[in-house]
């Protein structure tokens, strides 16, 4: 005999179903195993071992990628193959990558410590609840040879052009032209960079 009223019983079942669905979207056995092993490795050491573990988990990581610390992967983990990291890249400790939309990182890209590639935001609602539950997911692309410096934030839908540099702590809200240096909040072009053809 249930101690709950039929209405309360229905609410409990609905709540449990919602929680189980959210949990199933965040569980990824291979990634959990990879993260456990990666968490045991000292930062800046065994960089190719980390890359191999993340590749085994399902992330598309080219050969010759340096992963210097544990990646912070944010969002539902159903399809890790939508993260693509090109050869010769360097990912410093604390890099955070959103999983809500594709992330494409070109060849020879450097991501500094605590860089965030954000792939989703929420839509804005009425004054009674400004942040709605609905996600607006957009891809992030970083072109070949770009350098994203420490603690920079790339917002959803942004493309950083080849050979561009994003200054430390900058917040990138719109596309960055190739071979430019951007800085600030929001990031603005400061100047063009030389040696674009090398």
Structural domain tally: 1
Mean pLDDT: 91
Q: What portion of residues is helical?
A: 10-25%
Written as H for each helix and E for each strand, in order along the chain, the element string is: HHHEEEEEEEEEEEEEEEEEEE
Spans of at least 5 consecutive residues whose pLDDT stays below 50 are none
Q: How many helices? A: 3
Characteristic terms for this protein:
about 200 residues; alpha/beta; UDP N-Acetylglucosamine Acyltransferase, domain 1; 7-stranded mixed beta sheet; 5-stranded parallel beta sheet; globular
Question: Explain this structure to me?
Answer:
It is a single chain. With 198 residues, the chain is of the alpha/beta class. 22% of the residues lie in helices and 29% in strands. It has three helices and 19 strands. It has a seven-stranded mixed sheet with strand order 2-5-8-13-16-18-19. A five-stranded parallel sheet has the order 1-4-7-12-15, covered by helices on one side. Helix 2 runs antiparallel to helix 3. The protein is globular, with a radius of gyration of 20 Å. The chain starts with 5 loop residues before the first helix and ends in a 6-residue tail after the last strand.
């Amino acid at each position: 005999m249930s101690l709950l009223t039929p209405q309360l019983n229905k609410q409990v079942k609905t709540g449990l179903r919602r929680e189980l669905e959210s949990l199933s979207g965040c569980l990824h056995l291979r990634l959990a195993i990879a993260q456990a092993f990666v968490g045991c490795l000292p930062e800046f050491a065994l960089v190719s071992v980390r890359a191999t573990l993340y590749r085994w988990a399902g992330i598309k990581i080219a050969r010759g990628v340096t992963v210097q610390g544990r990646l912070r992967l944010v969002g539902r983990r159903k399809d890790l193959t939508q993260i693509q990291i090109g050869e010769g890249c360097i990912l410093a400790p604390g890099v955070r990558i959103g999983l809500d939309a594709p992330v494409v990182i070109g060849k020879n890209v450097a991501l500094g410590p605590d860089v965030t590639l954000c792939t989703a935001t929420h839509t804005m609602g009425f004054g009674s609840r400004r942040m709605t539950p609905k996600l607006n997911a957009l891809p992030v692309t970083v072109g070949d040879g770009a350098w994203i410096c420490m603690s920079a934030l790339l917002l959803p839908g942004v493309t950083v052009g080849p050979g561009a540099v994003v200054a430390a702590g900058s917040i990138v809200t719109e596309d960055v032209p190739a071979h430019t240096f951007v800085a600030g909040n929001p990031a603005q072009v400061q100047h063009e960079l030389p040696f674009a053809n090398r």
